[in-house]
Amino acid sequence: MKRKIKLLILPIVFLFSACDLFLGPEPDLSPPEILKSLWTDFNNIHANLDLRMSNNTKYNSWYDVYHNKSNGYALKVNSGTSERDLFDRCAEMLKELNDPHVGLYAPGKFSSSYSGSGETFYLSTARSYLIKDGNSGYKNFLYGAFDSNPNIGYIRISSFIDEDPETKDQEWGRAIDNIISSIANTKALVLDVRYNMGGDIYIMEYIAARFASEPKNYIKARIKTGPGASDLSSPIVYSIKSIKKASDNQYGYTKPIVLLTNKDTVSAAEWFTMALRTQSHVKHIGTTTRGAFSARNDRFMINGWHYSISPERVTDINGKTYEGIGIPPSEEIKNKANQLSDPDDQLDYALKRAKELAGIL
Question: Among 8, 151, 217, 252, which residue's beta carbon has the most beta carbons within 10 A?
Answer without folding.
Answer: 252
